[in-house]
Design goal:
- The structure holds two protein chains of two kinds.
- By secondary structure, chain A is α/β, with parallel strands linked by helices.
- Chain A has two domains: 141 residues, 3-Layer(aba) Sandwich (Rossmann fold), CATH 3.40.50.1980; 117 residues, Rossmann fold (3-Layer(aba) Sandwich).
- Chain A is built from eleven helices and eleven strands.
- In chain A, strands 7, 8, 9, 10 and 11 form a five-stranded mixed beta sheet that branches. In chain A, strands 4-3-5-6 form a four-stranded parallel beta sheet, with helices on both faces.
- In chain A, strand 1 and strand 2 form a beta hairpin.
- By secondary structure, chain B is mainly alpha-helical.
- Chain B has a single domain, classed as ABC transporter involved in vitamin B12 uptake, BtuC (Orthogonal Bundle), CATH 1.10.3470.
- In chain B, 76% of the residues lie in helices and 1% in strands.
- A two-stranded antiparallel sheet of chain B has the order 1-2.
- In chain B, helix 2 runs parallel beside helix 13, helix 8 packs antiparallel against helix 13 and helix 13 crosses helix 14.
- The longest helix of chain B is centred in the N-terminal third of the chain and has 35 residues.
- Classes of the chains: A alpha/beta, B mainly alpha.
Chain lengths: 287, 337
């Protein structure tokens, strides 16, 4: 009831006024605000990182349970998972806007309760740039393009530290359960920028589930994974023949490193550095 | 309906041996196809180079054999379940073993994730398959305890359904608390035949041989049970001993199959019905024929799963549901009940 009144009030007063902030999100919905939002809830780790990258970390009043970077967001209220955020808790934080994945189930409910929501769909490098720009417009903060330029410079710098003899190293990145990160995923795009050769072509989709025989046949020189459950990976039938397994070139990223790599957000430069370290053999995973 | 009567006569006169031989021939054919379908689709590697031979011997052959064996165990367990519970809708997961196995696998995944060091010791030796098997057998034991033994079939059935639900809810809770394991769990819940090696084949083969022999040993009792429990008792069948033996076979066969290939839907339900649609055998024939049919079904699904979208793999459990459900629908459409 209160929420409805609130929505009505916002509608009645906001409509005639000139909106100071007007952004179209990835659903095609227009978000209009009279002034830049001062209370933000983010329900996606990569969006939390994007907000902080734009220097607006202090405007966050709540984040999802998985948001753990930068340090200061750990002190904020954590309101639940990506799809099962506590609607009550979000509402109680009285956010001016909620940032979340456009596929999130919480989106329609939050919108129905009269909250402003911005749904973004981050999957590729281009999405990371667009996310920075859109969030920048929403926050009325400059610096999105500079941040994007810095990320690119970091990735390029990381690529330069890879010795020429390691260019073209064939790589297989497994997310878990036989699902691979293909060339068209953001992980694959970073790998390509580094000059590594992903054995999984992009036309199979971003995260295809592969026949294990495909990997044996492609015989990658390096295997990367961030999932602890993959410790059994070398014991799969026939996988002992793969060069990466024979030569022990398996990189088991830690949970924190895995977060950096799997999140399409502003830490792509660090992700690139981690993968370079892996390719150079400085990160040894337990086989 | 004259057509129906003709079919009934057909089924009565058709020899179970002939059906068995047909199923064995189909198995051989599918095995040949199974070794020729890989990550590039149709691609026979017979007499190829070193890598090709390794792919054939270390991946395709054990995977095809393993899929067949797991399907056979499920088909056999399905026929046992339908005979034991005297219910055509009974399937091997009825005693809670499927969700029990899922819970075991989920707990193991969490354990590996929380304490990577543990992955080196006993945890690694037990492995996900061991955990799945332990979960399946554990759930059946809980069911038996709840039903206070095997005396009352209805109580056993009810306890099995409840235990199945509770373990399903428990594994859902584990997945909720530790979402990191979602992707690995998904591949278990949808069924996967991709990682079967020679070790799995050996284990499944031994278990299938034992289960088939034990089950056939109890087949006169199952035939008598088909006439009703009181008739079976009056025929001198030691019912409780028979129930203990058959529940043991069911739990062992289902647990082993589920632990190796994950939750494969429909095969245990469908295989005995397929056999009965072709021929009207006693249990001595029905049990091995259902095993053969189950093997053929899962192997066919496995071949399709890797062929249709190669080099991507379809979840084999989803495929069996789709094909099995489609077949049953067609059957109902053709012969309205």
């Amino acid at each position: 009831m209160k929420a409805w009144l609130f929505a009505l009030a916002v509608f009645a007063f906001a409509a005639p006024l000139q909106a100071a902030v007007k952004v179209v999100d990835d659903r095609g919905a227009t978000i209009e605000l009279r002034e830049p939002p001062r209370r933000i809830v983010s329900l996606l780790p990569s969006l939390t990182e994007t907000v902080c990258e734009l220097g607006a970390c202090d405007r966050l009043v709540g984040v999802d349970d998985f948001s753990n970077w930068p340090q200061q967001v750990l002190r904020l209220p954590h309101v639940g998972g990506l799809d099962d955020a506590s609607i009550e808790q979000v509402l109680a934080l009285k956010p001016d806007v909620v940032l979340l994945a456009s596929s999130s189930r919480a989106l329609a409910r939050l919108e129905g309760l009269g909250l402003r929501v911005m749904g973004l769909d981050l999957k590729t490098l281009e999405d990371v740039r667009r996310g920075l720009v859109k969030v920048g417009q929403l926050l009325d903060r400059p610096g999105a393009e500079q941040a994007w330029a810095r990320i690119n410079a970091e990735v390029d710098a990381a690529a330069l530290t890879l010795p020429a003899r390691l260019r073209g190293t064939t790589v297989y990145y497994e997310i878990g359960g036989g699902y691979a990160a293909s060339e068209s995923s953001h992980i694959g795009e970073v790998l390509a920028r580094l000059g590594a050769a992903n054995i999984v072509p992009g036309h199979l989709g971003t995260v295809p589930k592969l026949n294990p025989e495909f990997v044996v046949r492609a015989d990658p020189q390096v295997i990367m994974f961030s999932d602890r459950n993959l410790a059994e990976l070398p014991a799969r039938p026939g996988w002992s023949r793969i060069r990466a397994v024979r030569e022990g070139r398996l990189c088991a990223f830690t949970a924190a490193q895995g977060d950096v790599i799997v999140r399409p957000g502003p830490r792509l430069g660090e992700s690139a550095r981690l993968m370079v370290q892996c390719l150079k053999g400085e990160l040894k995973g337990r086989p | 309906m004259p057509l129906a009567r003709d079919e009934a006569v057909d089924r009565a006169t058709r020899s179970p041996l002939a059906v068995g031989l047909v199923l064995i021939a189909v198995t051989a054919l599918l095995l040949a196809v199974g070794t020729a379908v890989g990550s590039l689709g149709w691609e026979p590697l017979w007499g190829g180079a070193d890598t090709a031979r390794a792919i054939l011997w270390e991946i395709r052959l054990p995977r095809s054999l393993g899929a067949w064996l797991a399907g056979a165990l499920l088909g056999l367990a399905g026929a046992v379940a339908q005979g034991l519970f005297r219910n055509p809708l009974a399937d091997p997961y009825l005693l809670g073993s499927a969700t029990g196995a899922a819970f075991g696998v989920a707990m193991m995944l969490v354990l590996i994730g929380v304490a990577p060091m543990a992955a080196d010791g006993w945890v690694a030796r037990l492995g996900l398959t061991g955990a799945g098997f332990a979960g399946a057998v554990g759930a059946v034991l809980v069911t038996l305890a709840l039903a206070r033994g095997v005396q009352h079939t209805l109580r056993l059935l009810l306890a099995g359904v409840i235990v199945g639900m509770v373990f399903g809810a428990l594994s859902a809770l584990v997945m909720f608390w530790v979402p990191d394991i979602l992707r690995s769990m998904q591949s278990f819940l949808l069924g996967t035949t991709g990682f079967l090696g020679w070790g799995s084949v050996g284990l499944l083969g031994v278990l299938l041989a034992v289960s088939v022999l034990v089950a056939i040993g109890f087949s006169p009792a199952l035939d008598a049970l088909a006439l009703g429990e009181s008739t079976a008792i009056s025929l001198g069948i030691p019912l409780s001993k028979v129930r203990v033996g058959l529940v043991g076979v069911m739990a062992l066969a289902t647990g082993a199959a589920v632990a190796q290939v994950g939750l494969i839907a429909f095969i245990g339900l469908l295989a005995p019905h397929l056999v009965r649609a072709a021929v009207k055998p006693t249990h001595r024939w029905l049990l091995p024929l259902a095993a053969l049919a189950g093997g053929v079904l899962l192997l066919a699904a496995d071949v399709l799963a890797r062929w249709l979208l190669a080099p991507q793999e379809l979840p084999v459990g989803a495929l069996t549901s789709l094909l099995g459900g489609g077949y049953l629908l067609w059957l109902m459409h053709r012969r309205p009940l």
